[in-house]
Amino acid sequence: MLKDEIAACCKALKLSRNLVENCDKIEAQSHEEYLLKLLRLELEHRDASRKDRLLKNAGFYTIKTFADYIFDEIKLPQGLTPQDLKDCKFLEEKKNLILYGNVGTGKTHLATAIGVEACKKGFNVKFFRTAALVNRLVEARKGGELSGLLKQLSKPDLLICDEWGYVPLDREGAQLLFQVISDCYERRSVVITTNLEFSRWASIFYDEQMTAAMIDRLIHHSYLLIFDGQSYRMRQSLMRQLS
Fold this sequence. Notes:
By secondary structure, this protein is α/β, with parallel strands linked by helices. It has helices at residues 2-12, 18-22, 31-57, 82-87, 89-92, 107-120, 130-142, 146-153, 171-184, 202-205, 208-220, 232-242; strands at 74-75, 96-101, 125-129, 158-164, 189-194, 222-227. The protein is 53% helix and 13% strand. The model is unreliable at 237-243 (pLDDT under 50).
């Protein structure tokens, strides 16, 4: 009976049922110590639940981590270390990461692992394949819901645009993507994975002036990571053939 009444009070106070489950597990020397320990457990539960929601809502296609990730074939710029990436130091500085290199060299894996770590640290993250993001923007404009979508995209601390440049964009899509990147400038961080050097970006956006402005906003506060190894998928395929 008492637990039912406690549960009802928790519901009225918008506290989780976790508090009810912990109430008879705590040992304390005083009422004050008991209450403090109970509240600490509730705070830990809320923090863990929030991070789980951030991870679930980020939109990762698959969950990738830094476990066994090899940095041997990645050229990191001066002032940036693998530990900095794991610590999401660039996020605190509101800097961007541009992951450039051949297909299959681990760019998406690293971008996802960084995003997962950011979620674990309490940052709001959104992951998109670039073409899918542009399609959503175009559809939102057609449906009169663009302002709402742009407002949603302004909330994440980190926006990850995977496969940047893999699919050519029409003028409308390019303009909408430019609007999103411009809104991120010096406000939140962006991570881009691409296999196109900057000189070829005009072939995606068709407008050289807009392309130059896009590049300017992205590289002003950014780190360029170069992936110059062989495709992991190709390497594994060759290994299977040899074995």
